[in-house]
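Lecture 7 notes. Example A: sequence first, then its structure tokens.
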Amino acid sequence: MRKLKELISINDRGMSIVMIVAITILLPNTVLKGLGIPSGAKACLYDVYIGVGIYYVSRLLIICALFYILYAQRYNFSVMMITRHKHIYDIWKRCVKDLAILSVAISVYIYIATTIAGICIKRKICNWEDETSMCYSVIHMPCELTPSFLLISIVFILQTFTIIFVMGLIMLAVWWITDK
């Protein structure tokens, strides 16, 4: 928690607020647009998690998150940091550690915002056993064993973290190689 607070305070609180506002504004719009839900199907919170994971995190949010991570990492390759750490691999380890911390924070915030928006807009946690559900329209039979809310939540957070972290690693590696 201390490291996250340090990352946010060092890297301009205004940019952190812009990132939070961007996620908060874009997420309900994505939920309201339908998330690829077939006509006639009624979505629930679980469907919102799936749709946000497919459409929102992988396409729209990754741009905002990677820009913020790059903004937060901008001083790590300066001459002062290189002389302070002696070895370039120590700087890389620090960058990856900071990336992991920021990825966890962004993933948890996306989960919280998705849960609040999904419950407020869709008003139902799971309807996969109904014939009007999105699950029924995809597999053409009711889902008998619905997963627990905890399991769906953990999978959503891990999926979001993995997308942001892996794309962040690729971005850092490209920046590492091309930065003069």
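Example B, a different protein, same format:
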Amino acid sequence: MRMAWLATQEKPVEPKEETAYPLVDDLERFYGHLEQTLLSTGFIREGHPGQVMNKLRRMFTRARPESRGAEHSARDSGVD
């Protein structure tokens, strides 16, 4: 009886949308733009980016940005 009741309570599972992740080239353009921005603002020094860029790359890799975010940032900045 419990199984029959549970069967009536089940709701259909909606399929998850597949998230489009950026291509490696898109991410590299994003990282290039980010590094140039950080250099121009003085956040990192020319020739000595140190661990900042490595840490930012790891952070963005863990965050798994969507492709539209990486594409928009490069396109909006005028980077080809």
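Note on Example B: The chain has a mean pLDDT of 78. The first helix runs from residue 2 to 9.
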